[in-house]
Amino acid sequence: MASLLRTAGRARPAIARSIVRPTSRSTPIALQRHYASAAAASAVAPNNSTPALFPDEPSGPIIRTEIPGPKSKDAVERLGKVFDTRSLNMMANYNQSYGNYIADLDGNVLLDVYAQIASIPVGYNNPTLQLAATSPEMASAIINRPALGNFPQHDWADILETGILSVAPKGLNQVFTAQAGSDANELAYKAAFMYRRQQERGGANVEFSEAEMTSSLTNQSPGAPDLSILSFKKGFHGRLFGSLSTTRSKPIHKLDIPAFDWPVAPFPDLKYPLDQYAAENQAEEQHCLAETERLISEWHSPPAAVVVEPVQSEGGDNHASPAFFQGLRDITKKHNILFIVDEVQTGVGATGKFWAHDHWNLDTPPDMVTFSKKAQTAGYYFGDDALKPNKPYRQFNTWMGDPARAILFRAIIQEIERLDLVQNTAVTGAYLYDGLQRLSEQFPGEIQNLRGKGQGTFIAWDSPRRDEVLKKAKGVGINVGGSGERAVRLRPMLIFQQKHADLLLEGLDKIFKS
Amino acid sequence: MASLLRTAGRARPAIARSIVRPTSRSTPIALQRHYASAAAASAVAPNNSTPALFPDEPSGPIIRTEIPGPKSKDAVERLGKVFDTRSLNMMANYNQSYGNYIADLDGNVLLDVYAQIASIPVGYNNPTLQLAATSPEMASAIINRPALGNFPQHDWADILETGILSVAPKGLNQVFTAQAGSDANELAYKAAFMYRRQQERGGANVEFSEAEMTSSLTNQSPGAPDLSILSFKKGFHGRLFGSLSTTRSKPIHKLDIPAFDWPVAPFPDLKYPLDQYAAENQAEEQHCLAETERLISEWHSPPAAVVVEPVQSEGGDNHASPAFFQGLRDITKKHNILFIVDEVQTGVGATGKFWAHDHWNLDTPPDMVTFSKKAQTAGYYFGDDALKPNKPYRQFNTWMGDPARAILFRAIIQEIERLDLVQNTAVTGAYLYDGLQRLSEQFPGEIQNLRGKGQGTFIAWDSPRRDEVLKKAKGVGINVGGSGERAVRLRPMLIFQQKHADLLLEGLDKIFKS
User: What is the ipTM of this complex?
Assistant: First the structure.
């Protein structure tokens, strides 16, 4: 492994700025203590020369007990009495977690490349976020939560403009805020249905018919129209009833839940390494596009929109080329239906661009882009005013998002910009991919179909003993997750650096040798 | 009006405890200033002798300009460029809002009996909530948001037990947490469908068939079963695709959105005053129950559950008697389907009991009770372990609720208990209802079908010029909302006291005389 690391140690652009501990009086005492202890831990010399983004981070994982250890076992048993713990992976002590490291209750501290299912962007107990979280405006947002559609707070335009909208995808300049990925997608679907029916009706000024009004209340057409959203095999868009109808990841996500009879198109099943199978993969993508177009033309409930993830994440980290997505954009334009890009997992920097669809170089932007997870808030971006329903109270709910989380996302954006974290992720991702490439050559039975080259740290591979690898990773100090049936997926935070990549590669090497 | 108020001034149990300003160092400076200014405002003598729960509150509304005033108009115009403002009621300055009073940008301060669509429980800038919101554990919950199903925090059992679960409805002892009312209902529906199919399959140990696994991915039966949720005409259960399929409040909530072909039963259309129409109303409720039972037996997609609100809120504040709900419980038991009570708007004290269904004296508890709004978090309570799906990852999503909001609900619960606010609401509600009763006799054309007697402050009436009344209310210093086609609905906070009721009655008197 030592030689592997040495050969990997090429020169990289240095990331000069670093996270500075807050000195404000408002820092809670518990956190001040934590900083002090983290500083003591970091007295150990860093294991390489890259300037640290989180200087006070532990220098590596700390394993004190089996995982779960005795304290964790007791706590899980207690929690099990009031909360379903069958999907529990690890009980965490977030007071002791810092930067890329997650702590448990037994003193174990793991390098976290799963990051709360890809949803922690800039490190546990990030000091900049801590300042935002303890600000008077955050306190007010928490205790005076408004019904935003009716009684927005005086600075809501500011919060949107300096936060969520400041990172709007190219070509889009408006947002409808939501609470999580599932409802963000469903709100986008609703916007698509209202847009479609408005077109069919003859425009925004045409009133609803009596038949529409009446039938809407009994869930019948024309008021509740026979329209659909087209999604892709193995896609994941959430687990509420509308979003779940577009989710096709695994039976366990869908069994026993009624679903809309909506169309599902094949998603490209690419062969790796890509350069060896260029012709086959191109043919596969053409086949999927043709089948998508056929379904759009022939499905009994016409699609109002196509929804797609830039990388199918829960479904197994399935990639497609920019040409495929350009093709989807062309087909949706041709058939006058909307193109929704679900960036809930791919968005906010993880692929080495702020939005993963920035990799596609589309001629015209998606009609809507949905987001959540690392944004810590949610919603859909759009640009066309016609996507606003023709009357108020059509796209509406009590809270319509959450200023507290919008304020937090603004702080996250500022941190990403201050530390140039999208660039860091592109650079670290390339370094990590190279290391994994070498590991896959050394252990071809362990790392198969390595994918995510040029996609930041959004990297995955197939493993014939995936669940065993995930479990053994804890023993070598790494918290890592899976996706699909046999993929190991890496979802580190945006503060993941070369030294962390080295630790990950070392840990994998240990597992593969075991 | 003066005589009206005097005759209303009966002796009431005094609420002795009051909200004490926090003295902690962690109180933000902005808030300290606010307390100082609020204290100055309260130098004006209180307008009656009831001990004040919020001593520093303004002594009454302050109207400085037309509403919206010039500053609000400018701000709304600016917000309109990035956010849909067509449903905007009033832009608020929450820094200047306190207790029962909401402030705008022009120095106007209104008595708020709408409270963010019934979702603010214990007053704007409540000092106790302020302490919770500025605590280190809140900061950690905000910046280290866990994926609760996988990586719960070490104190999650504590937070549940001392918070959400400490107010679990009688007979229920478990909770699945969510983010808002819509998804709380949808998660309850999912639990109902999984429970039903598990029964049909022969129990928790029977594996899914290959046909179920395969068909689930194409949204076809048997994997995606032809089952339904039965709801009621004018019911409102949310606006996502599954919840919207059970919502039947108004066409504007449903138009153009595809919906499941699920059954809808009539909800009692009671005549007022109730004591004059006892026989007719009883017959009406029996008719609705019979029709519900017929639909359960005959609907093409069998219902897995019946969902009902204790008071249909968005649909126009429609009440039914405890006997009706007891009848629903009996019918669901008889047909072995689940009974879900949607307490999103009625829960957390507003009806003078913590849960509105406490008024019904059921023999057996509901199978699930959903909640949100005043709880500031959301979820469904249940008691039967069989309502947990047989395998992990079936009822699951990334965040599965939010510890930050669960911590806030715990503080809300503590505040409700400390100040005996459910009792306060029962007492104030009775006082207010009596006052409205007298007003309705004085202005029979203005207050029709007054309802909510014995239901705390959860009071409404029909108004032939409803929208005009709501608008004029702002001019007399009152922020009040409507529901359904012509109801004025009162949704004050739990800190609403006799003096506030007097101000409300005075204001209504002014409007009716105008």
Answer: 0.92
